[in-house]
Amino acid sequence: MTRTIPHYPVHLIDVMHLPAGTRVMLRPILPQDVELQRAFFRSLSAHSRYSRFMTRVNELPQALAERFTRIDYTSHLALVATILEDGREVMIGEARCVADERDPAICELAIAVADVWQRCGIALALLVRLERQAAELGFRRIVADTLVTNRAMLGLARRARYAIIASPEEKTQARLEKHLRPVAAIAA
Ligand SMILES: CC(C)(COP(=O)(O)OP(=O)(O)OC[C@H]1O[C@@H](n2cnc3c(N)ncnc32)[C@H](O)[C@@H]1OP(=O)(O)O)[C@@H](O)C(=O)NCCC(=O)NCCS
Question: Which of 69, 97, 144, 151 has the most CB atoms around it within 10 Å of its CB?
Fold first, then answer.
């Protein structure tokens, strides 16, 4: 049975080719990606999982995986990077942004790439597309909290031109922030 998902942003489906020739599909997440999502989480090293969630989590609970995949693509948007391995789709990265409940002009970013695929430009490719769509959706600021020891995320943030601000409440964390230009201003 084919299900139609209202508002599925098909225009965000894209392909990137890594220098070694691997074809990586970039697309908005789908409700049927629950197992892909959980397998992706399992494929992350303990260090990457800790960096992503800032707490020790061994398994992505089913309910959370469902929340991560059943999204409205407006207040919650997630893009995934997938490859084909022996004819099976495998998730190797994801970037998501969720509207801040207190301020709808702000969205919160979370991002992760499978360890063996890091430093291939996948996070940056996801982030650029996520930011563009977040601006299109009307968000004016994208923010993330990260551990001050997370060199990879701080490096990505610098590269993507985020401001890095020391957290006043939590010394182990830094806040990353970027203003999103309204789409009309980008087009001009
Ligand atoms: C942070 C993370 C998403 C980066 O993903 P990635 O796909 O490896 O990043 P990219 O290859 O797109 O890197 C883009 C740029 O970010 C910077 N960067 C990425 N990894 C870096 C590292 N380990 N050290 C320093 N800079 C780094 C570089 O400027 C890089 O450009 P370059 O490779 O041309 O020098 C990845 O390391 C990860 O999943 N970490 C675990 C989860 C996590 O920490 N999530 C963040 C929680 S907010």
Answer: 97
